[in-house]
Amino acid sequence: MEEIKFYDEKTRKFYKLVPTLSWPTLEISGIHMHRIKKVDPKTDSELKIKSLGKLYGIVLDTCTGLGYTAILAAREKDVKKVITVEKDENVIKIAKLNPYSKELFSNPKIELRIADVTQEIKKFEKNFFDFIIHDPPRISIAEELYSLAFYQELYRVLKPKGKIFHYVGEPGKLQGKNYLKGILRRLKLVGFTKIKKVEEALGLIIQK
Questions:
Q1: Residues 138-194: tens digit of each pLDDT
Q2: Are 132 and 151 spatial neighbours (Cβ–Cβ below 8 Å)?
Q3: What order do you get walking across the sheet with 25-28 strand by strand?
Q4: Between 2.60.120.200, 3.40.50.300, 3.30.70.1290, 3.40.50.150, what CATH number should domain 40-207 receive?
Q5: In the chain, where are the structural domains located?
Q6: To 5 degrees, how large is the angle CA 154–CA 159–CA 165?
Q7: Checking CA distances to 170, which of 92, 140, 146, 181 falls within 20 to 30 Å?
Q8: Is the pTM value of this prediction over 0.90?
Q9: Nearest to 28 by CA among 38, 39, 18, 19
């Protein structure tokens, strides 16, 4: 696969598709958008989907990236539709060049929206989604995707008994900070009571 990398003046970010032993990962200004230590990007995406159990109905994927979680979710036979949202057009530009992202553009069950998910989510009706995959960039890059206001929207659009996978990683571990405490507090404030950690996927499973 030929090397894909470029700098965008508008975003002032450097984008690069980085090969791995399985599916490539996306690197934005030196930060990888998938786990590449201990697990590869393909396994990382599979663990996120697996942690939600049997998928069905309508799924929201809040941050498209290279589209791996949207693709895997859409492959589930009982899933009718996956709506996936990405605000950075450069990321989609790279996805179009990545052979492993092909289904993002060819699977009729996937609807890709180029938009800011914090605004786009407001367009959906209450109790619209059966499942939500929330796999945001780290909190230091996209604080708004961990905010009380955004969690309120996630709660609003999720059906009763619906589930969310929320990737949290290990934020602040190296700096000795505990961001997870604040994340859990805000999730509980908006009404989520059933929250459990999924260590192998470095995330949370949240049920309404």
A1: 888 899 999 999 999 999 999 999 999 999 987 555 555 678 899 999 999 999 999
A2: no
A3: 4-8, 13-18, 25-28, 31-32
A4: 3.40.50.150
A5: 40-207
A6: 50
A7: 92
A8: yes
A9: 18
